[in-house]
Amino acid sequence: MKKKILFLVPLPPPLHGSSFINNEIYKSKAIKKNFSTVFLNSSPSKKFEEIEKFSFNKILNFIFILIKLIFNIIKFNPDLTYFCPSPRGIGFYKDLIVIFILKLFRTKLVFHLHGVGYNRLTRESKLKKKILVFFFKNVNLICLSKLAKHDIKNIYDPSKKIFILNNFAKTIPMKKKNKSILTFIFFSNLVPSKGIMVFLDSLKILQKKKTNRFKAKIIGDTFNEKFFKEFKDKLKKINNIKYLGPLYGKKKFAELSKSDVLVFPTKYKNENFPVVLLEAMAYGLPSVASANGSIPEIIENNFNGIILKKNNANECAKCLQKYILNYELLKRHSLNAKNKYKLNYTFQNFEKKLFKIFHKIN
Hints:
The protein has helices spanning 17-27, 29-34, 56-76, 89-104, 118-124, 126-135, 196-208, 225-235, 249-257, 275-282, 295-298, 313-325, 327-344, 347-360, and strands spanning 4-9, 36-41, 80-83, 109-113, 139-143, 162-164, 182-187, 214-219, 241-243, 261-264, 287-289, 305-307. It is of the alpha/beta class. It has two domains: 4-168 and 346-360, 3-Layer(aba) Sandwich (Rossmann fold); 182-344, 3-Layer(aba) Sandwich (Rossmann fold), CATH 3.40.50.2000. The strands form two sheets. Strands 2-1-3-4-5-6 form a six-stranded parallel sheet, sandwiched between helices. Helix 7 (196-208) packs across helix 12. The protein is globular, with a radius of gyration of 21 Å. The two termini are 14 Å apart.
């Protein structure tokens, strides 16, 4: 008899790292073939700009989610409930209510921890630490990397299992074109914490040094008009750069395939295992990235990219210049990036590991 699994997960829209991963699990024919499944969307937000913001519509959506959850626990009677809790903002408190209901019905639980921030919460408040220890008791956990295990060191139940399951990237086959000029790409939401200004300032430094043997392009969306104006003002002062706006699917992958190096100097405090790095690696792009979250596990310094010693424009410019001046280094890092992706970060690899995890939870 198939194991019955209830998936309570954020699904798109909006599309972000966690909802992308969950949507691929939802579409997996192999998972539906091997397990009896029910999927419930745990996100009350329908647009990216609504995430972590209060609204009455979201409250109504959340109440509806709770009603559907209780109904499906009773009707479906799952052997295992798979849940993706959030460690930040309004989502943290919302998910405490969800976990309370799950525990009330004594359903067997596995939490897939896409976000980080639990260690910070336990340091902020003794009460939050006690609450988290209680809610994580008797719960199996899935972390995105070995480095991410540090985030739950104060709250996990040592009698239960902790599994490591890296994220993956799905891509579309594209032919990479040979060209004489190197292209840097920044691909993320245009918010200060993702490092867009560090990237632009590093290009200005290269421009002043008259190191002009490069192009640059930026892909991403923003919902902060004030910051977007600052971004556009700075963009005007830099040569050989294009802002392409938000791109998805085939258009996004086409731009990645036509680029040479991804630049990702993120300072986002909840950064964990960015899918954008994996997507870049799939097309043979090394990355210049900060040592934030689990990034040093994805990007091995001077192997498939460069890790910034300091996350500032001067350091970023130095690293970009290494690729401009050394084509052999770029070629070597590019090959290593593609090989590491194939070995570790395909959906097939993720799917097999997820099967094993579900079977190991008794």
